[in-house]
């Protein structure tokens, strides 16, 4: 991985135009020719579209003209519009530009890493898994500094959040986005927008040696690899819904079947019989799992930050809910007893879990693994 370039007010080479507005116009024309849609951005630190430059549309509800940017999610700007935005000799103000994701830009998606630390972790995962893919991606260092990664895919979707963390500014009760995509209906500011477009007063700079006129088209599997790498860095779970404590797990009994199961069971025992497949070990020892009906994709992870919990990403992982964490007993109860914790506890007690397990004994490790092939024989390294 090449080192992330820290944005500066002034740069050199590919990132340093001799005349900012002339360079923006030249780049805008090249981007349009390469099949990208774009819009003008105000150079006032808001990162907002330059609405006054956009065509007026009458809004009946507001009783006035508005200047929406959404039409450019369906069509790219014309050559005349680019000239009006960036090359009008009567207007000497600066404007930046933003690239629009989605079908209008040929299936363009942008992975947006919020800061340099999370970007470096994401890059490390992708480089380890697919170094040639990583080298082919268009990468832009954003002013925070963060990272924008551009690619095209036939599987392009709407914008989505891939990795989040508890936000300290909210008392850790809300999520802060670490990595997201900008796809259909989304946009990202891009070089050579003036530094004044960002509240930091710093520029967007190319981190890769290739630019936005040569955005690669990658396969669906390669796209999933990029998104899965981001999901491995998620450390947010939705607050658990309150539910009554099951009577089978009385407070104060440290030898309850569920507690014993949480301590001694393996996720392989729980997930594999229900069609989940182990994908491998990712960053910091986080294990990746693929839901039934899919192959080689990350639908969930286990043991993020040593939590020993299952965190589910997919919305198709029934009976699990997306963006939710589960301990082993909860997962077992959902998969085997429809969420009936009393039945699950009785079942586990009959298998020897807990102080009051049947026959007063516990199931040995080899007995619990007798029906499964060891992971070492499935390619785990």
The oligomeric state of the chains shown is: single chain
How big a fraction of the residues is strand? 15-25%
Helix/strand order? HEEEHEEHHEEEEEEHHHEEEEEHHH
Average pLDDT for all residues: 83
The CATH topology of the largest domain, please? Prim-pol fold
In this structure, how is the largest beta sheet organized?
Answer: 6 strands, antiparallel
CATH architecture of the largest domain: 2-Layer Sandwich
Q: CATH homologous superfamily of the largest domain, by name? A: Bifunctional DNA primase/polymerase domain
Can you list the strand order of the major beta sheet?
Answer: 8-9-5-7-6-11
Q: Tell me the domain tally.
A: 2
Which key phrases capture this entry?
381 residues; alpha+beta; Prim-pol fold; 6-stranded antiparallel sheet; 5-stranded antiparallel sheet; 10 helices; 19% strand; disordered N terminus; disordered C terminus
Commentary on this structure:
With 381 residues, the chain is α+β, with helices and mostly antiparallel strands. It folds into 2 domains: 13-231, Bifunctional DNA primase/polymerase domain (Prim-pol fold); 257-378. The protein contains 10 helices and 16 strands. It has helices at 20-33, 79-86, 116-129, 131-136, 220-231, 257-264, 267-271, 328-337, 341-350, 365-368, and strands at residues 38-42, 57-59, 64-66, 95-100, 108-113, 138-142, 146-152, 160-166, 175-182, 187-189, 205-206, 277-281, 287-290, 300-302, 310-312, 324-326. The chain has a 6-stranded antiparallel beta sheet with strand order 8-9-5-7-6-11. A hairpin with a 3-residue loop joins strand 6 and strand 7 (146-152). It is elongated, with a radius of gyration of 26 Å.
